[in-house]
Amino acid sequence: MVQRSLYGYFPSKRSCDSAASPKVTFLHLPQAIRRRIYLDAGLVSKYPIHLNYLVAEDRNCVQDYDPDYPESWPVEDEDLITVRSKSLSHFLDGPVPWPEIQLNRNCTCLKDGAAWCKCGAFPYQLLYVSKAIVNEVSSIFYSENHFIVFRNSLGGLSVLRSLSRKALSQMTSLSIYLNVVDGDEREWIIGSDSFPYCHAMCSDSKMDRAFRKERHWDETVSIKEWQRLCKILRPNIKPNRLKLFLTCDMADMELSHEFLQPLLQTPTLPLRECSIRLASGFLKPGNINYHTPDSLQELVALARLNAQQAAGQLTTYRSTKASFRYGDLPKEVRLQILENTELVSPFDLAWTSNPPVDLAYQPQKSQFYEHRTFQYGTYGPALCCQKCSPTTDACSCFLRCGAFSTTCTCWTMPVQFFLVNKQTKDDAEFVFYSKNHFLVSSRADRDPKKLRIYDFLTHLPRNGRRYLRSLSLDHVSGQDVYHLPDSRGMEQWRDCLSIINEEMNPRQLSLTIDLGFDKTSVYYSYGGDFQFVPDNCYIREAEKVWTVGKGLANSLIENVQLKNLFFHFMWPFEDHKEGITVDRGRVLEMMVMGENYDSTDRGKNERRHRWNGYQCDREEGCPICL
């Protein structure tokens, strides 16, 4: 008989504890903590992912490749393969369609070649831990990133059709490029560095012509592929989840209607947001892709109708016996409703006697425009709002292209509110002029020696002058001295003060005066051609601006009592060296408003940053940006 070990009669404390309490694993952590661990391990969020495959370096043109026959694809160049492109294949690919193809994707770097890539590898090892972790990682990967597909790139639309149904249902942002025309300089995105130029794959996938009704091979194949893709997406997309950004540059309306038909077939794609671009914008006359202003506006209207209908923003009108009478609502309720419409812009509104060129072709004409969109003046190009599409996509602003996006924030004057009836017109005027911040530059358009603020005040309707609550004078001088005291400009400024006193409510008006000088004009007047300009030259010009500021302050003391007054000076009168703010504008503010007046407590910097924070710069000393 074998003697039993004594350890069998004395169970260890560890075995007792494990039997008494359940085992704690990684999956018992809160979901937010697990997600953070996945991201720290290398999983990305809000990242653009290109689904098309890499091509050979000596054959960048992939228009002749048939996406349904992978054996015709070229073998990719090893110099373009990065660690991120290799790891991305674990998330996206199933069985390899052809032995020589490794199914590597293009990394989202603006540099060419793997040597320039600084991106780390995706943590594909998480996909081989457990089924629960695979589900969580896949959900984050597909739901929190933006996916991009080019029909003219290697793999075409088949890279999207090859994804699983579960992956398609988890997607929240997708861009599909059926045809991208390489247009003129207006095609390039103009914006900040956070909104980069076209990706390398996007540039390689551009066509030299727009689709036409003559039915070339590209048009026939593209529409068939698009119809087949819509049949796959329709049953696999969750309602109100996917943001779809669709680009297909067209040359005529007939083919545009046929292209958009699969998008709105019953049942329609239940999209959360939708962006449709049918033309890249104005091209040079004589080009086969040339669009007239009228034809471009027709494409904008078509894209607007289909995008809003796809996103569920259009409701069918139903006649009822007891219709809703908006005019019977109390005035306070009507004003609150109008304050949540396009009558109120989150940015400052500029005024000009000559509307910007890009607004001249809009169906609704107005002399008001957002300065954020036309920062280079009325003759400059419209800037992208950077909300119409993800950061690596082409612009879909209706002011720049034959397109419309439900996420676009470009603003045009909502003239329709002023054309309903007299009651709605009066309410709209009160909301528009009292809730917006208006920006007026110093010089007039036609007469350089005439103040634009004088034209602005004289052209406003009587109710507009009476309701005006916030006005900013952007006074940037050049080398001329017409704006100095005892000049014609100062006489017109006194006339403006008379209008403010007699026809407006100065005690309810907040006046902002931006004073500065043109550094470029000083540079070229000194000599230009990369010559060093001493600081004394800039300071001498700044002293002239300071003289103008004192003259404006003295005129305000004599004529107007305002609610708020804000003076902003550019360098060197507003400097932030070593964290010490030097605000010379406060001297003039207290001189006009009194010694106890504190503009900072009244939101001097916060209001300015909220209205025109799009052009704030740390170097110019914005206290909010510091």
TrEMBL record:
InterPro entries referenced in this protein's UniProt entry, alphabetically: AN11006-like
PANTHER family, per the entry: F-BOX DOMAIN-CONTAINING PROTEIN (PTHR42085)
Protein name listed in UniProt: F-box domain-containing protein
